[in-house]
Design goal:
Helix content is about 40%, strand content about 20%. By secondary structure, the chain is α/β, with parallel strands linked by helices.
């Protein structure tokens, strides 16, 4: 089946990479993600990826424990590089070409990010993993992924999470919460829903970037989203 979207920006949560370990990178979860990504790349979808670093270090949590906020955020950026390298390694082990680009220069670990370089690699069929968020403190990886999605002219931003979409309340805490199949940005603001931080949400809204929030932890879901199946929640 012809994919609905030719070029995507996939936002992955660092916490999801923990699997059931509680910290770090679960090899089984990493390989499962790599298999899903490799499958859609092999089918012709151009894939850009941004990964969080919360499985290793989260800047805001560090600041709450007394770390300097700027240094804490920089530590969080380095955590995203570790996750990016791990995913690139898993993809390449499965025969899928992948390249890590970093918002902060740190050769030879990764190449400095530029929109042109990312675009060229995507056109070649290489999965491009963009790390370090925006390269600046006080911005989350959600904002980084929104920015990169807009810069690379992705058709959609896919936000892979542990839940299967956006709900009226946290479904892990409120069993009566109901799921939205689709929702507008205005409704998100009016209902006070926090699918991403406000900076990221506003950036997507102002640039017409659609978001699909879906459960990435169920194998095959990434391909189902690209095939146009009605799973997850569309934000428009």
């Amino acid at each position: 089946m012809e994919p609905t979207y030719k070029r995507i920006l996939l936002k992955l949560s660092g916490e999801s990479l923990m699997g059931h370990q509680g910290y770090g990178i679960d090899r089984e979860r990493l390989d499962q993600y790599a298999q899903q990504i490799s499958a859609i790349a092999a089918a012709g979808t151009q894939v850009g990826i941004v990964i969080g670093g919360g499985n290793i270090f989260r800047g805001l949590s560090g600041a709450a424990k007394g770390f300097d906020r700027v240094k804490g955020d920089q530590m969080g950026m380095l955590a995203t590089v570790i996750n990016s390298l791990a995913l690139a390694s898993a993809l390449e082990a499965g025969g899928c070409p992948a390249r890590v680009l970093t918002a902060i220069p740190m050769a030879p670990i990764g190449e400095p990010y530029s929109t042109q370089k990312a675009d060229d690699l995507l056109k070649q069929g290489t999965v491009v993993i963009i790390s370090c968020g925006t390269g600046n403190p006080y911005f989350t990886t959600d904002t980084g992924s929104a920015l990169r999605a807009i810069e690379i002219k992705a058709d959609v931003m896919l936000k892979g999470t542990r839940v299967d979409g956006i709900y009226t309340a946290d479904p892990e805490k409120d069993p009566s919460a109901t799921k939205f199949d689709k929702i507008t940005y205005d409704e998100i603001y009016n209902k006070g829903l926090r699918i991403m931080d406000l900076t990221a949400t506003t950036l997507c809204r102002e640039n017409g970037m659609k978001i699909i929030v879906f459960d990435m932890d169920t194998p095959g879901n990434l391909a189902r989203v690209l095939a146009g199946e009605n799973i997850g929640t569309l934000v428009y």
